Amino acid sequence: MTITAENPLVRIEGLHKFYGQHHVLRGIDLDVNRGEVSVVIGPSGSGKSTMLRCVNLLETISAGRISVGGKLIGYRDVKGRLHDLKTKEIAAQRREIGMVFQRFNLFPHKTALYNIMEAPVHVKGQSRDAARRRAMELLDRVGLSDHAGHYPSQLSGGQQQRVAIARALAMDPELMLFDEPTSALDPELVGDVLNVMKDLAKSGMTMIVVTHEIGFAREVGDRLTFMDGGVVVESGDPREILANPKHPRTQEFLSRVL
After folding, report:
1. With left for phi above 0 and alpha for psi between -120 and 50, is residue 180 left, alpha or beta?
2. To 5 degrees, how large is the angle CA 194–CA 163–CA 176?
3. What would the pLDDT profile of 206-227 be if each residue is shown by its tens digit?
């Protein structure tokens, strides 16, 4: 299937999410084209991370649809009615979507190399030799080829996050999701992680990035979406929105963070 502007790689339509009576997402619509870096900003509690978790099937949606690569995520459409996919089918879909979290979630008892090798070997059935070669290539890509034998406790937060990015890339995803990947880092470590993400963007990786790094949004983003209260308030060219936000709520938020 050819992905075009009319048929984007990611399409989120009318996405709602409830936690009991709490209405977290209130009809989110968002398209992301192949090779695009879509940056999402907004205050805490605006629903940004919940939206990402719905895309990656870590949360079930309450209403709406999400498609990645033209395939409905989490469900099968049978004559207009949605039916839950089986656990094995959901796992297969999730393999196509890499995710990097605020916290690195590395296995503490495994080295950087083995953290990256784990999923390709045990999920994709890759040979250990092939997984090791690929893991070393990815460690080199994120600037950590000399840290292959280090355990997470021997790495800085920024280094752990770069290993986490390499781990996600080891599954060869068609989409990468980043959930505030620098928010848990000391300020001096942020730049190394952002540089890896910039290189990914240059390579053509499709990315949805939830972040407070406005400079990254301005420099790398193809689209900027401002969320508040579970809705999309404003979306468009990052440089245009950052220089001249149209909505009063966007203006107020940016006046505080810039």
Report:
1. left
2. 60
3. 999 999 999 999 999 999 999 9
